[in-house]
Amino acid sequence: MFLHLLKYELKVGLRNKDLIIWLILFPIVLGIFFKVAFGSVYEKTEKFSSIPVAVVEEKENEAFRQVLESIENADEPFLKVNFVNREKAEKLLDNGDVEGIIISDGELSLTVKEKGLRETMLKSFAEQYKIREKIAMDAINTAPEKAQEVISSLTSETVSSCRKIPLTQGNPDVYIQYFYNLIAMVAMFGCMTGMHITMQNQADLSALGARNNCSPVPKSKSVLACLVGSFILQTICMLLCVTFLAFVLKTDFGDRLWLVYPTAVLGGILGVTFGFFVGSLARVGEKTKVAILMTVTMSLCFCSGLMMGNMKAVIAAKIPWFNNINPVAVISDSFYCLNIYEDYDRFITKLITMAVTAVIFAVLGFLASRRKKYASI
C-alpha cells in the first residue's frame, strides 16, 4: 500500500506546474542573470593581476635586469615590465598605463602618481631589492670570485619573496555567495511541496483531504508516503539545479563538487519539512498558507544575502545568533565552508544543524496533524 501511495504521489508531483516553474525554471533563469551580472566582476575588480611598471635604466644593472626577467617569466608574474626612457615612462605614468616608474641609476628609486595597495606593493619590492642588493654587494667586495653565485642567489630570493600564496584551495570569488544563496532558495522553495502534504491530508483544508480521510488507509502511512514522495521530487530538483550551475554556467564550487550535491539534497529535505510543519499549524486556506510561506522564505533569503551580498555580515554584527537559526543562511554557509576551509569541522556542524532542524520540523508536523478528528465530512 505504501509503494502504491508513493507512486501516485510522484505522478501528482510531476504534473504540478508550480514545481516545474519555481523549482526548475526559475532557478535556471535567475542563475543566468547572476552569471551575467557577477560572472566577471571578480576577475576585473578584485582578482590580483600583474602590476604594470616602467623601468628606466640610466645605469646598467645586470643583477636587477635578471631579477625583473625572472619575475616576468613566472607563471603568474608579479610585475609587467616596460623598459623605456625617462620621458616615455613619465608619459605612461600620466596616462595611467603603468602604476609606477623604477629608475635604476646606481640606486633604485620609485615614482608613483597615487597612493594605493599596488603602489605600496611596488614600494615594498623596491625596498626589499635594495636591502638584498646591499648584502650581495658586500659579499662580492669581500669575495669577487663568487659574484655570479651571489647575483643568482639575489635573483632567486627576490623572485621567491614575490610568489603567490593562496589563502584557500577553494574559489575565493566573493560573488559566488549569490549562487550559494540561489541553491538555498531553491531548497527552501521545497516548502511548497511540503505544505501541499497537509492540504491533501486534512479534511478541513481541501476536498482531496476530505476524500483521503474517508479512505481506510491510515493517515500516518498516507502522510509518510507524501513526505517521501516530496523528498524524492525535491532531490531531483536540487540535483538539476547544482548540475546546471556547475556544468552549464561553469560556476566554480571548488574542488569538492561531489559533496555539494548531498549538501544541496539535505537542504531540499529541510525545505520540505519546513513547509510541512508550517502547513500543519493553521487552519487557513491554501492561498493564505502560500503567502505566509513565500513571505517567510524570501525574508530569510534576504537576511542570508540573496538580494544584498553583505546582509549576512550585517546581521552577524548585530544579532549573530540569527544566522545560526536561519535555514537559508545555514544552507548557504555549508557551501561556503566546503569551498573555503580545508578541514570539515565547520561543514559537518552545518550538516548536523540542517539534519536536526529537518527532523524537528518533520516531528512537529506529524504531531500537529496526526490526531485531528472531524464531526462530519
Task: Summarize the helices and strands and which ones pair or pack.
Elements: H1 2-14, H2 17-38, H3 41-45, E1 51-57, H4 62-72, E2 79-83, H5 86-95, E3 100-104, E4 108-112, H6 117-142, H7 147-160, H8 177-188, H9 191-199, H10 207-214, H11 219-248, H12 257-281, H13 286-304, H14 311-318, H15 322-325, H16 327-340, H17 345-369
Parallel strand pairs: 1-2, 1-3
Antiparallel strand pairs: 3-4
Helix pairs in contact: 1-11, 2-8, 2-11, 4-7, 6-7, 8-11, 8-12, 8-13, 8-16, 9-11, 9-12, 9-13, 11-12, 12-16, 12-17, 13-16, 16-17
Task: Describe the 3D structure.
68% of the residues lie in helices and 6% in strands. By secondary structure, the protein is mainly alpha-helical. The protein has a 4-stranded mixed beta sheet, with helices on both faces. A hairpin with a 3-residue loop joins strand 3 and strand 4 (108-112). It is elongated, with a radius of gyration of 31 Å. The mean pLDDT is 82.
- What low-confidence regions span 5 or more consecutive residues with pLDDT below 50? none
The helix tally amounts to 17
Shape: elongated
The residue-averaged pLDDT reads: 82
- Largest sheet entry: 4 strands, mixed
Strand content: 5-15%
Calculate the terminal CA-CA distance, rounded to whole Å: 24 Å
Question: What's the assembly state of these chains?
Answer: single chain
**DSSP strand tally:** 4
Structural category is mainly alpha
